[in-house]
Write the structure tokens for this entry.
Amino acid sequence: MRPVAITGRGAVTAAGVGADRLWEAAREGRSAVGEVRFPRIHRQQVKRAARISDADYEALLAAAKPRFQDRTAILALAAAREAVAEAGLGAGDFGDRCGVVVGSGFGGAETLERNYVRFVEDPAARSDAMSIPKIMTSSAASWISMEWKATGPALCVSTACSSATQSIGIAADLIRAGVVDRCLAGGSESLLFDGVFAAWEALHVMTTDRCRPFSKDRTGMVLGEGAGIVVLESMEAARARGAEILAELVGYASTSDAGDLLRPDPAGAAACVRRAITASGVDPSRIGYCNAHGTGTIANDVTETRALREVFGDAFDGLAVSSTKPIHGHALGAGGALEFIVTVEALRAQIAPPTIDFLGIDPAIGFDPVANVARPFSADAALSNSFAFGGINASLVVTLPGRG
Amino acid sequence: MTETTVRDEDLRRRLLAIVAEEGMVKDREIAEDQRLEDLGIASADFVMILMAIEEKFGVYVPVDSRLTEAETVGDLLDAVCHHIEEHEKKAES
């Protein structure tokens, strides 16, 4: 497929405000996961998550419209501002030649929760009139398009953990199809609130210990929150305005297992990775780093390993595979964008960030996922995967500039 | 029979009833040597079973390798008993 230029990145995570904060934490293996307390949960079993610090969030609030914006939109706007600034986009670069594709799994969880609590406590009280426009999953996409007057298509892809990866892939498709010249694409998620967290506990996929992707004795995932936005442009549009091209998006694919709601299927994951690589035209042996979905659940990590081995064959041993979820948490609808940004930085720095809290090789998995310490690699292409509940898979392939 | 095994048997009986109820299997049809697959107990039923165990025993059982590798009802009970014992040990210490 024709390469698409990546010219800007922005991220807000528990590691701090800024894509650099995210990358530094990932590279250094510094976890942003901490203790979280939810007073309304009767018997809180899981007590850790990667939550954005109050100080960071208050700073973002100063530039936000909380009366009209849920935390999800506020995070997305902050990430978008960083990405637009890095890309150096001016007022004339938006209009109907610019689209917005920003995913979210849940939408405005903070507003939804607050509204329900108020309603249950006092059904006679007036509901927040802005609840609906704050809760709708497409709210962040709308706010971003409004901020820059981007009047091309604005979409919200809501496919659980694959939301942001599909968003970036679909944005690239829109650019390649000539619908737009550029897109602000990514995802935003913020659902670390009592009621939603209690529902996550009920699913029993979160660990009460640490999140240890691909490790022996792993017992589940850890939640996170945040937003990641990238600026994607056609190569022509990026060159025409003399933009610095950070990397090229050269492959995207998505498949559906059409099987079990919760249990992933190695064949579906393998088909997705294979199609993305085929679309990129890059030989698998050129891919030096894979930022895995790597949730730390038993099922995902076994399935993903099986899929990668199947697709890469002999080249698997030369591939550095790691999961950065123990650093930034599983940010669900934002996860794919955060991990895409980490993948781009890893490629540019030629450093595979580590999978921290790794205890040892699980015989059912049988490989070392850049255990605990970052590792240099030498390659001009990288891969990022997202495999969502509901069996929705998505993969992106990037190369260094001029190598697509 | 020692006190511990009586208690264990009682625990397994209670757990078996939970698996039957949440897995929507008739009590008299469930036995430890039966395969979960044959009883039609799938991923979503697992979650319901773990939720009920949490309600009744106050212990959070994450889906670990013991649990995912369980093939029979007995394997599932072993995995859950292990978690309940660990939980009690932690509570005592």
